[in-house]
Amino acid sequence: MTHTLTATGNAYVSEELLTGCQAVAQGVRLADVDVIAAYPIRPYTEVMDLISKIIADGRLTAEYIIADSEHGQFEIVKHASSVGARAFAGSSGTGWLYGFEALAVTATDRLPVLFLVGNRALDDPGAFGVEHNDALAVRDLGWLLCWVTTPQEALEHVLIGYRVAEDRRVQMPMALAMDGAFLTHSQHIVRIPSVEAARKFLPPYDLGDRRLHPDNPISIAPQVNEDWVMEIRRQNWEAARRAPQVIAEAYREFDAIFGTDYASSPFFTEFMTEDAEVVLVGLGTVAAPARTAVRRLREKGERVGYVGLRWFRPFPTVPLRECLRRFQAVGVIDRDFAHGSPDDGGILLHEIRSCLYPAAERPAVVNFIIGLGGRDISIADCQRMFDLTRQAVGAAGGDGLVRWIGVRE
Amino acid sequence: MIRRIEINYRGVFQKTLARQVASDLVRIAARTGKVGFSNGRYSDAPERNGVPCKYFVFISPDLSEEELEAECGAKLDIDEADISIVLDDTMVKGVEPWAWSGIRPINEKVIEGGFLLVVSNKEVGELMKFIPKKEYPYHLAILPGESSLSGLWVFHDDLTHERVLGAMAGLDPELVSIDAVESYLRERTKDERRVAAAVEGYEWVHHRYKVVSPEEGIDWPHAVPVLPAWTEFREGVAVPAIQRGFRLGPRGQSRSTIFRRGTTKTMRPVIRFDLCRKCTLCWLECPDECFDPTPDGRYDVDYQYCVGCGKCAEVCPVNECIVMVDELRFDDDSSPWEFWNRDPQGYVDWAEEKKGAMRQKPLVVTGAGPVVTAPGQRVPARGVHDMTDQEVSR
Amino acid sequence: MVTPEQNQYEPIKSVHQVPLEEFYSSGHRTCQGCESALTMRHLAKAAGPRTVVTGSTGCMYVANTSYMTTPWIIPWMHTQLGAAGASALGMSAGLRALMRKGRLAEERINVIAFCGDLGGGDMGLSGISSALQSNYNLLIILYDNESAANTDIQATGLTTYGAQTTFTPPGSAQRIMQRRWKKNVAGMMAVGHPTCRYVATACATYPPMDLMNKVRKALSVGGPAFIHTFCPCPKGWDYHPRYSHEIGELGVRSGIFPLYEVVEGQVRYTYDARKRRIPVREYLTKQGRFAHLVDEDMDHIQQMVDEMWEKWEVPGVAPFKGPLSEA
Q: For chain A, first and last CA: distance in Å?
């Protein structure tokens, strides 16, 4: 169903009922992507279902390739990007890892391809439900890694993602992550930007003097001995360090064109944290039950809040530290697990504890392993996590506590 | 106290030989109460036929194995060597293992009072024509012998290995005594010929020997490239291509300016342009693009880039037109075609003088066939797979 | 005069018509007498300047390029070991999209991806197969030196039966560790991809100019093409570099490496080994990698080669044995 809006002027032209995957497909259309490589795996696949139809209907001019495997799919877009084409691919779970080698080189080749990761638990046993270990596997490779929580954000972050990734100061690949089954498959009304507004925000992709073309004779990625590797790694680190500023700029520009409000808190969102004593921190769709729990507990007078992390790479270390140190206790929600890790908890827990370490006064930090393999996270679960987090305040051994929530015992 | 030994050898052709010499030095050290270990320069691998490589041996009478490893083991190349062994004498013209290394002097690592031990049939003076000056005195010792070349799977077992061990004992008895070498070889191989070969090396190594004083040697013409800081080169692992460029005549084809590879060759093609039938095969079949088409339809050769594979000589249909000649008979890389144009008769005389009377055609399988080791001694080639696993180079 | 600058080619009829200019030049750290390097050189020479090349991991990656140097004059990029097919698809798709949208001038740019026998005959098969199904103008070159030469000579699916490699050393209990018969990759590609316009095998040096002409045909057919080249390797096959031409020629003339092209389903033999073959021994005995073989091993190899030329339905190409029978 589609009808034209007048209220938002010409930045948004219509509303459509879209799943997260479909919203990304619309973002790909609006980004005028040049090359798309597809390979099926649930739950991300639906994005390719719609993109292929959009192309079939002539609403996007792009080369659309059905690859032989995820490895082939990722290498196709990597090389398309190297000749100067804007490229899109995506995957989920075990498929994402099948192409892992290609994911590593796309980052070191500094090629700004955008990928959708419909988060999915890794095999074995085969499981369709959400778990974040798949996308998080690239966290140390030189990727931009961002979680969205609604189809609207998903669509808008295709445009924002390309803008940041392709910026000459960054030029890193971008993984747009969303919770499989939940956000990938749930339909919401989405406001669709106009082609003109999208073009205004997102300039054409220009790889400059790194574009592989007969008029620009270069060799890309010659073999190195130990005499060059550290300098190359150092360059890539510098690009990652430049990214936060570029992200902030992109949000300011996006807000100006579309009337959104991203720039005020670009890397994470705070909900009712003003006077909060206890907060939960999480990635992705857990925001919905968590915020609802916050509202209900607030009605009972509890001073609780929720911090939704959007950008995982680059990790917003300083602003997040400044935010979290204000509270008495922080409950970190991990929809993943880091086996054999120092805190014997989730990946997000380790990042946040490390981020807080330099703070003079640190809140108690507890960790919840929940919703693995797509198990529901209810409002009640979130209320329970708030209670457990509050109990850690001042309690001996409270800090660093790791609890599995919802596992049969 | 640490003894650092580097073994300079021709990639692949001398891989097994270098590994054997290094391994035996470590084993003999262990038998005589010293601590030692050996390793190859990691960046040489995978080895390429003829490209200069290094193998290292570190031995100490007093350090613990861990201390020795800490002092020497972590390094990808060494800073100094008590003894630099050179298994192929054409490497005295310098070695360029890979791009951005530059052409390095063969005596670069030799310390004051140290030894440069070269396997060669040349005289001291013939080698000193190519070796640069050092600021301090050191020794040049020549172990008489042909450069011993094997294949990857077939080993040219001409006892060079045993002779080098003997020569080491001759140069540095503290490091390894001739008695230790003899008893080791006798026990391990039960082959008196091998013991005798070691004794030969021990005795022969002082025949062509000199103390090289600081003023002796040439001024080194090659600079060592400076690697740029991380801020000084393009991001995204993109590097400039070789600039397009071609014109007829000497050095008319554009080539890499940072990696020339000429030090890979042990022999170079000498061309009788007057005999050339312009069949193009030398140029067409060259895997290293080192021939330059000339306006008269012939093919000049850029010796800076020639790696001396010998294909051109093999495919040339004209007898005596292209002949491979010992690299040490030449001291410059200038264009032979220009020489020939300047002075046709002078060039032909020069070419024939360089070619000399002898013509050697290598066996098809390098290292195969019976080999003369000393008067009256013949040893058959061995497959590397015939050796004990310690002998086999990996 | 049609010109390579526009990627319109004439056949090279004589050695004197071979373009003089190089587009792959000196500065590669390859072995003396490396026929894989010669394949790269002739490939670039035949294709000319309006070309982009990717090379998957292997000798022609690691030996060719040492960082901040390259032998390539035309644009070149590394691709992963199993990604030759994908890289060709990606470059072709990117260039076509940019031209359709007017962001690049319309022109014919050659897209070439090469891989070794490990990258093309084993790991990369499915990607190459996928590229040969496409409708892009692209060329996949498999340079076959019959081993993982860059990791110091390990057996691959394309290593000759009986050959010594570091993964297949002769031993006292087993003389032959490489018991697999060489995969028939070009035949597989021709039989398996009915819409693929051009499949060929070639040897860089024998017959002269043949590889260059096949490259030009492949680049002109207006669709995906595949060439499998026979590249003697002095290091791994263990012969003196000086004899690289001879080994290649013997491989062809003994019939152990068939030379042919398949154009629109028609097989044309470049060297018809049905009519004349020299004994395969003349090829085997000139390589140290076969030094451990005994007569019966050589007889077995000879018999397999004879079968390929005398019993196969399409000799040297497709191992079906006729006549076809009713169900």
A: 46
